[in-house]
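This entry is listed as follows:

___
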Amino acid sequence: MVKRLNIDPSKLFRNIGEKSRLQVIRLCFDAERSAEELIEQTGLEKSLLSKHLKVLLDSGILIFRCNGREKFYSLNESIRHPNVPHALNLHCCNIELK
């Protein structure tokens, strides 16, 4: 299911502007990631990663699916820029992730 962003742009920028959240977005940009993969690749503690994931999920930037007890996170396709690789279309502006 594609979830449309319905969030104030200033809050959206706060949500993605935090270094660890931006790292999670980059990791989820090209591939679905499990929480375990994200912990391993970011070096974050499980509880801290969980807080960052909640912010990204609540704002509609990430989505998840369950496979048994495990959750897999990916970028919400509605914010992937259709013509620019590694860019987000936030419906107020575009951001290219390098």
Summary: Helices lie at 9-17, 19-30, 35-42, 46-58. The longest strand covers residues 62-67.
